[in-house]
Design a protein that fits this description.
heterodimer, A: alpha/beta, Rossmann fold, six-stranded mixed β-sheet, two-stranded antiparallel sheet, 23 helices, 11 strands, elongated, B: alpha+beta, SH3 type barrels, six-stranded antiparallel β-sheet, 2 helices
């Protein structure tokens, strides 16, 4: 009786795409190994029976070498063999390397069925595989599939039932590779092809000079595109909707409730010059939705659209190679750039992605650097909101300060944190043309994730602030922190409220700064301080879950120190 | 026949892995990625003097950090 189906395979063979095909559950997939760091589960209906499908993080062998690989292997080995089927997903374009894990699985006595995935791409590369012969040699069912189009999935399902453990001699490592050499010789034919434009680009992207040029061009273009799409979504869609459609409705509600009532204070907030001001009013129907939908969401959409493109083309691992040198000085290696880039969207998936880093020291450094020095989309939107009306140098200035903080803190952590940092050892995937449907699904998932996680928090945050403001309960807080805020940072003592509430969610901090009428310098310092402190309460939670209380406390103390030092320095340096 | 480290190989040069001086964990990792004694590899590039090395093993392109790369000795014609 089959109760579970495990999907296992090397990194970046399309396990998550197969998973989506089998279960209908949409998960994020990209063109680099290590996209899936958590175990994803879904349900498949097969012959009237419900079977749980488990998507495991990619691994090269059953001898795990990172946290996410370890998770995959332990789950697989602990489950009773009679009750499961292991779908081994194999990249047909690279059969040789993939067969190592396949043989291990079969030798382990697991009931294995092999999905020869990306068979369309293999054809493209001039690789042809004799499936019948491979099936005979391995002794387990082998089905060619193309998960992105859905080809072969039906056949895969039909043959799952006939999967059973087979007797196979246990090999030593060397013998296994020898055996693989034999198998490849028998089942795979390569047609030689001339170098295509794509291969020339692939080559150029991993050479020092051309690679750096390509990377810089890609990063600059990406930033521009993110800004362009974001600004246009705001100016052409979000703002008109809020100002022309929503505001008149709220104005009616406002006069109905009466400006002085408590309900008005909660729902609409304060009227600024007799009108609702979406950025400053601080009501749960005014500022809260405006921040989320007209300031942050447009950038979430544009950022994740561009990130998705970069991910699916296969650019990220190439950046990892080019930046390896620099990241070594921070106690990390090149792969850490991927969590950092994810962190630019939202720190939470960024910190989760550090699971791909091998050592605990590396994970601590990466997670700390992300939560302190990497501003998420919401935070960046706030920086733009605060400083956008001054010259572009103010906004760029915040990024430069953050970059400096990031580098200096990284170097310090590299010299102080105990433990070892392993070296880069990754596979560079081929460039792939992104599939529009995967791209769209991924964007949709990420937007949905943002709306579910962030929007309610912002609503609650605005509500709390509102109540506290109404009953004038911030006095104690401002009193305690006045010496630091005024003396060291040169800010009015009321700014502490926004800084503290910013720890809850950055988006709510801005509305409270507006009424303080800060100077450009003060706004700049505040923006930097907001950027340095952890972006939201969810970051604290995920940091705690991933690295434990001790490390969270350490990172929080580091954050406070960095904020204190940077804020003070800026206050005394800038004139 | 000459034995040199992976770092010293020139771009586009081919050779055969003849020694890997690494602990068992790294040996295993190399092994599972297809880098083992007797395997033919081709160097694609390296980034800077102390940077990572890109090699082609079978049909995959692998990138190895500087330290890891210097642990691998290659026999070239």
């Amino acid at each position: 009786m089959i109760k579970k189906i495990f999907l296992i395979g090397n990194p970046n063979v399309g396990k998550s795409v197969v998973f989506s095909r089998l279960t209908g559950v949409q998960v994020i997939s990209s063109n680099y190994g290590g996209t899936t760091v958590e175990i994803t589960r879904g349900v498949l209906k097969l012959g009237g029976q419900e079977i749980e499908v488990v998507d495991l993080p990619g691994t090269y062998s059953l001898e795990a070498s990172s946290k996410s690989e370890e998770v995959a292997v332990t789950i697989l080995k602990d489950y009773p063999k009679e009750e499961c089927v292991v779908v081994n997903i194999v990249d047909s374009t690279n059969l040789e390397r993939n067969l190592y894990l396949s043989l291990e699985l079969i030798e382990e006595g697991l009931p294995v069925i092999v999905a020869l995935n990306m068979c369309d791409e293999a054809k493209h590369h001039g690789v042809s595989i004799q499936v019948d012969k491979l099936e005979k040699i391995l002794g387990v069912p082998v089905i060619p599939t193309c998960a992105i189009t859905g080809l072969g999935i039906k056949l895969l399902l039909e043959r799952i039932a006939e999967t059973k453990p087979v007797e196979r001699q246990r090999f030593s490592h060397r013998q296994r590779w020898q055996e693989i050499g034999n198998i490849i010789g028998q089942v795979q034919q390569l047609t030689h092809r001339h170098h295509s434009l794509r291969e020339i680009l692939e080559d150029a992207s991993v050479r020092p000079f051309s690679g750096a040029l390509i990377a810089i061009a890609i990063i600059l273009v990406s930033f521009e595109v993110v800004r362009f799409i974001g600004e246009n979504l705001i100016n052409r869609i979000a703002d008109p909707i809020f100002l022309n459609l929503y505001q008149p409705l709220l104005a009616k509600l406002s006069s109905f409730l009466g400006e002085e009532s408590f309900i008005h204070h909660l729902v609409i907030g304060d009227l600024i010059n007799g009108r609702i001001d979406f950025k400053q009013s601080l009501g749960i129907l005014t500022t809260a939705p405006y921040i989320e939908f007209a300031m942050v969401l447009p950038y979430i959409i544009s950022f994740y659209f561009v990130l998705g493109l970069l991910e699916d083309i296969g650019i990220l691992p190439r950046l990892a190679m080019l930046l390896d040198n620099i990241l070594h000085h921070l106690g990390l290696h090149g792969f850490a750039i991927i969590p950092v880039l994810l962190g630019l969207g939202c720190n939470v998936p960024g910190i989760l992605a550090t699971r791909n880093l091998e050592s605990r020291r590396e994970r601590f450094i990466a997670a700390t650097l992300i939560s302190i020095g990497v501003p998420c989309v919401a935070l960046q939107a706030m920086i733009f909101g605060l400083l956008g009306r001054f010259s572009g140098w103010y906004v760029s200035g915040v990024y430069l300060v953050l970059l400096a903080v990031w580098l200096v803190l990284g170097i310090i952590l590299n010299h102080t944190v105990k433990g070892y940092s392993p070296e880069l050892l990754i596979e560079i995937p081929p460039y792939r043309l992104p599939s529009l449907s995967t791209l769209w699904k991924k964007l949709f998932l990420r937007i949905k994730g943002f709306l579910i996680e962030a929007a309610p928090l912002v609503l609650v945050g605005v509500l709390i602030i509102n109540v506290l403001l109404y009953f004038k309960l911030f006095g104690l807080l401002t009193g305690i922190f006045a010496p630091v805020i005024k003396g060291l940072f040169g800010l009015p003592k009321e700014a502490v409220v926004s800084l503290v509430m910013g720890l809850f969610r950055k988006d709510v901090a801005v509305g409270m700064l507006m009424p303080l009428a800060l100077t450009a310098k003060q706004l700049f310092i505040t923006a930097v301080l907001l950027a340095i402190s952890f972006p939201c309460v969810a970051t604290f939670v995920v940091f705690f879950k991933e690295l434990g209380l001790k490390d969270l406390i350490k990172a929080s103390l580091i954050m406070l120190t960095v904020a204190l030092v940077t804020g003070t320095l800026l206050n005394f340096v800038i004139h | 026949m000459k034995k040199i480290s992976l770092k010293q190989m020139k771009e586009k040069q081919k050779g055969i892995v003849c020694d890997i001086s690494a602990g068992p964990a790294l040996q295993n990792k190399f092994m599972s990625m297809g880098i083992y004694k007797g395997r033919e590899i081709a160097k694609i590039s390296h980034i800077g003097l102390k940077g990572p090395v890109a090699i082609k093993v079978g049909r995959s392109v692998l990138v190895l950090g500087h330290g890891v790369a210097s642990k691998i000795t290659i026999e070239i014609q």
